[in-house]
Amino acid sequence: REGQGFILAYSITSRSTFDRLEVFHQSVRRAKRGNPILLLVGNKCDRPLAREVSREEGAVLARQFGCDFFETSAKTGLNVERVFTALVRALRPTKAISAGPESAKDVKKKKCIIL
Predict the structure, then answer these.
(1) Using an 8 Å Cβ cutoff, are 20 and 38 in contact?
(2) CATH number for position 77
(3) Rounded CA gap, 43 and 58, in Å?
(4) Nearest alpha-carbon partner for 74 in 115, 39, 43
(5) What Gene3D superfamilies does the entry give (predicted)?
(6) Which partner for 50 in 5, 13, 31, 62 could form a disulfide, CB atoms 3.0-4.6 Å apart?
């Protein structure tokens, strides 16, 4: 509930993970109300022979969700950094820039959680 940006990930080698994305998408929308920043990520693109979800299906779903789409490989590192860079860039405009230095108490409250 505290998150600002969300990565909805599935395995391109598992149709069931792709099919469950709508449930996760709705959960994020309900919890965040409004338009949270989302990225859709199809992982395991290093396994093309085991592919069950086409790249086009991922792109279509991303358009429906109104978010960017990437295919990645956690194994080889392909596009992983690009995904996180895109998320940070999308989040930047949503953060207010404070004029003064942050107190140590404020810094301790901030978190980055990757699930």
Answers:
(1) no
(2) 3.40.50.300
(3) 11
(4) 43
(5) P-loop containing nucleotide triphosphate hydrolases
(6) 13
Q: Note whether 70 and 79 are within 8 A (CB).
A: yes
The strand order across the sheet containing 37-43 reads 5-11, 37-43, 68-71
- Look at the block and give the residue holding tokens 């108490």: 105
DSSP state of 97: P
Q: Return the SS3 of 16.
A: helix
Total number of domains constituting the chain: 1
Question: Running DSSP on this structure, what letter comes out for residue 104?
Answer: H
| Angstrom distance (rounded) from CA 29 to CA 8 | 12
How confident is the prediction along the chain (115 residues), in pLDDT tens digits per residue?
A: 678 899 999 999 999 999 999 999 999 999 987 788 999 999 999 999 999 999 999 999 999 999 999 999 999 999 999 999 999 999 988 765 333 455 555 555 656 666 5
Amino acid (one-letter) located at 11 = S
Is 107 a member of any domain? Answer: no
Radius of gyration of the CA atoms of the chain, in A: 16
